[in-house]
Every structure is written in C-alpha cells, then in structure tokens.
Write a structure and sequence with these properties.
Layout lengths: L1 H11 L5 H5 L2 H15 L2 H12 L8 H16 L3 E14 L3 E7 L3 E3 L1 E3 L11 E8 L2 H6 L2 H4 L3 E4 L12 H4 L1 H4 L1 H7 L4 E5 L25 E4 L1 H16 L5 E6 L2 E15 L8 E7 L9 H20 L6 E7 L7 H10 L5 E6 L7 E6 L6 H11 L5 E6 L7 H5 L3 E7 L4 H4 L12 H19 L15
Parallel strand pairs: 5-6, 6-7, 7-8, 11-12, 11-13, 13-16, 14-15
Antiparallel strand pairs: 1-10, 2-3, 2-9, 4-8, 5-9, 10-12, 14-16
Bound molecules: zinc ion (ZN).
Length: 468
C-alpha cells in the first residue's frame, strides 16, 4: 500500500511531497524506478529530438556543434543547473566518394565505406589485385612480397552475443589491419565490416595508422559483400585467376576544428558527500543518425538524472556529461577529466554506451565497505530482470579513466545481441529503438542513482585491478 502511494506520488507530482521526501531511500528509489518504467517520456523525447532535429553528429563538424547547442537548450529547459560546454580542438577527417568494384574475373559492384582516418585514392581510384586473409595474424604472417602493391582483404567471424565480447577480438581487422597492411606495402585494405547483420550496410569506425605506417586507403565492405568477395577469391584462385578490384575512397582532413562536451548538474545538498558522474557521448558516426550509438545512452542518463531532480534534491551532486568526439578517439573524455579532476570529489562514475536494449546485468567496483550499498542496488534492480555479475565495473570509453585512477564505478550492462547489427552503419536510426526497453534502462539508472546519490554511507572504490 505504501508503495502504491509512493508510486502515485512519484508519477503524478513534479515536486516532492513531504511523505515522499521522508520515505526510506530504498522505498523512494523503488517508487522512482517503477514510475520511470511505467511512463518515462524524457528519454524518448531526447533521442527522437536529437536524431530528428540534428541527425548525424560527426565529431568536430558543424553538425556536432549544432548538437551541442541543441543539448544545451534541452538540458536548460529540463531544469538542470550549471549547463555548460567544455570546448576542445581536434583534427577532423571527413569521408568523400566511396566505390568498390570487382574488375575481373567476375565484374560487379561491392558496397564499401571508408574507415576513420583512411588515406585517399586518386579521384579516379586505384586498381590492383586482391589478396585475402582470414585474420590480422594471417596477414601479419604473410611475406611482404605477397602483399606489396595489392589490395588486402581481411575477414573475421564475429557473431552476435549478449555481452558484446566479440567486438574486441573480432575488431582487429579494422583497428590493426590498416597499419599492418600499410607496413607491408599494400596499396589499400578492405575489411569485412565489424558487425553482425546480413544487410548491405557497411560499418565504419575508428582506426589510426601506427608509427611508420603511411596512411593507405582503408575501407569496410558490407558483410554480404565481404562474403561475396570471399567466394569470388576462392573460385578465382581455384581457377588460377587473379581477382582485380577498383577502389575509390577520397576522404580528406579539413583541419583543426572545435568539439566539446556538454555538462549539466543536479546539485546535491551535501558537498562533502562527493559527486556522481554519469553520461554517454553526443557525437556519432556520419552514416546513420546515431540513435543507438549513442543518442540513447545520453537520453537514458539525462532522463534518470532528471527523475532524481524532480523528486527533490539528492544528497550527492549528479553530473551528467554528454561527451564530444568519443568515436574518433576520446578527446572529450580527456578534456573533461583534466577540467574536473580537481573540482569536487568524484566518488562514482557510470556510463551508458551500448545501445538502447534492456539492462540485463549490473556490475560494481565498490569497496568492501560498500557491500550493503551494492546489495541494496542489486535488490532494486532485480524486479527489472537484472542479474548481478561477478566482474568489476570499469565504466566505458569516456568515464573509464576515472575508474582506472581509483574512483568507484557501476556498470548497467545492456543486451548487446542486436547492437552490432546497427553500430556505425547507415542503419543506426531511431526506428531501431524499442520505447519499452528504453524505459527499462531509465528505470534501472533511476533506481541506481536514487540509491547511490542518497546513500548515507560514504561511497568508496574497490582497489584498481592491474590491466589484463
Ligand atoms: Zn558509442
């Protein structure tokens, strides 16, 4: 009964009732969780608005600047305090034309997109023989003479799974392939897209040429096109015929331009209790509208912080950061850390950057003295179907730096089964987001934040594990 009254209070009022404000922390957190699950619209409105009014937001471009202005307006309208931009400069790479075709023995077009920081072909492209490899290790092991002057193709066998653990190992063709191919004198490289769909949508993504590696044209083939090329190579090689490809990739650098983070706060009542920092990244790749990666994560954390704010001032300040330039190397993460490491005592970080599907697992890197806090949060999340994992939380690309330097983190792991169908592809659009799963995310984040922000005990971090 008490819960019903609290739920009604949380759902119906935009200001805290006295009874609600005085309820035990866990009851308040449960009521806020249930209200978010039943009716959050802030997250959907945020992701719908950002992807519709701004669309793609590639780092350092005028589109990302428009996204910052949009976010400042929206966060201010939602009532957040200390809304501000943390600007920084970065070199900006933009794609140009992109075409691939098999010239012989089976002439046909293939769908390709340039990887970040790809070198350029001449405007009319290059034509060369294709040499294929099953992995970066196989490319590495090949004699340079087998690669020199050729277009390297590297495939992989990434499969969809819940925790996204394939992205690290199977991402090697994109991350290391271009550098290895360049050092061996390749004319260019194309890789099987780092994705799990079977549509003719290529997946772009960051790569950086290592020391001594001349930038060469580097592209990703859509997965059906990569499989087609594998069949063509196998058949042609069996017949003793070379496969020749024409490749046109004309990206370029436009110079140094401004990027930036957008920061907003829910001020706490107890400055000595420390600050909780949460968020996601505002920039996106340019092919889709960055709905799943990562308007959703930004929207989820904004909506959860907003729910805490609407319920009354929390004990701890909650800082929401919408990072710039995550996709292209994380200049936003570093800038935010450098600007804020001395400002207030950050005691907990959490990042949402794995799409919009439901949270299925929670992991902690709280200190032993916070065992009870971890138990309370896990109990609040269990009704949402969330299990407790055994690994230590590490936050993500933007907030992981805090954890690595000894701050506590809580990870709310999302189901990644569909994530790499859309990630960095033209198919990353609003229609891929399930509003009910988005609300479940907001509910989970709201419950976690409510419990952590108002925890009466100090928040302490687990010791940092040495990197594996
Ligand atoms: Zn992302």
């Amino acid at each position: 009964m008490k819960m019903l009254i609290l739920l009604a209070a949380a759902a119906a009022l935009s200001f805290p009732s006295l009874a609600f404000a005085q309820a035990p922390v866990a009851d308040r957190a449960a009521a806020l969780r249930d209200a978010a699950l039943a009716g959050d619209s802030v997250a959907w409105d945020f992701v719908e608005g950002l992807t519709t009014e701004v669309g793609q937001r590639q780092a350092g471009t005028e589109a990302e600047a428009r996204a910052r202005d949009w976010a400042v307006r929206r966060l201010t309208a939602l009532g957040f305090a200390n809304v501000r931009i943390e600007p920084f400069e970065m070199p900006v790479w933009v794609r140009g034309e992109e075409r691939a075709e098999i010239v012989s023995p089976f002439p046909q077009r293939l769908v390709v997109t340039a990887l970040g920081n790809s070198g350029a072909t001449p405007p009319r492209g290059i034509e060369a023989e294709v040499v294929g490899f099953d992995s970066v290790a196989a490319l590495q092991a090949a004699p340079d003479a087998a690669v020199r002057g050729r277009i390297v193709f590297v495939t992989h066998n990434m499969q969809a799974n819940q925790d996204g653990s394939g992205y690290g190992p199977f991402g090697a063709p994109r991350r290391q392939g271009p550098t290895v191919a360049s050092r061996k004198g390749a004319a260019a490289i194309v890789v099987r897209s780092i994705g799990t769909d079977h549509h003719r949508n290529p997946h772009t993504g960051a790569q950086a040429f290592g020391e001594g590696a001349r930038p060469i044209p580097a592209g990703a083939l859509a997965i059906p096109d990569a499989e087609q090329l594998q069949r063509i190579l196998a058949r042609a090689n069996a017949q003793g015929r070379p496969v020749r490809m024409r490749l046109v990739l004309t990206p370029r650098y436009t110079g140094r331009h401004q990027s930036g983070n957008v920061v907003a706060e829910v001020p706490g009542t107890d400055p000595g209790a420390g600050v909780i920092v949460i968020g996601g990244h505002l920039d996106s790749w340019d092919l889709g509208t960055g709905a799943v990666d990562n308007a959703a994560g930004v929207a989820i954390t904004v909506a959860a912080a907003h729910r805490i704010m609407q319920a009354g001032r929390p004990r701890r300040t909650i800082r929401v950061v919408l990072f710039g330039a995550e996709e292209v190397g994380g200049g936003g993460s570093e800038t935010h850390f450098n600007l804020n490491r001395g400002a207030g005592n950050v005691v907990l970080v959490g990042e949402s950057d794995f799409g919009a599907d439901r949270v299925w697992r929670v992991e902690f890197s709280l200190g032993a003295a916070n065992a009870a806090l971890g138990d309370r949060i896990a109990a609040l999340l269990a009704p949402l179907g969330i299990v407790r994992g055994r690994d230590a939380a590490g936050a993500g690309a933007d907030l992981g730096i805090w954890r690595r330097l000894g701050v506590a983190a809580i990870d709310l792991n999302q189901d990644g089964t569909r994530y790499f169908d859309y990630h960095h592809s033209p198919d990353d659009t609003l229609d891929k987001i399930d509003p009910a799963q988005l609300r479940q995310n907001v509910a989970a984040w709201t419950a976690m934040l409510a419990a952590a922000a108002d925890a009466p005990e100090p928040i302490v971090a687990a010791p940092v594990q040495p990197a594996r």
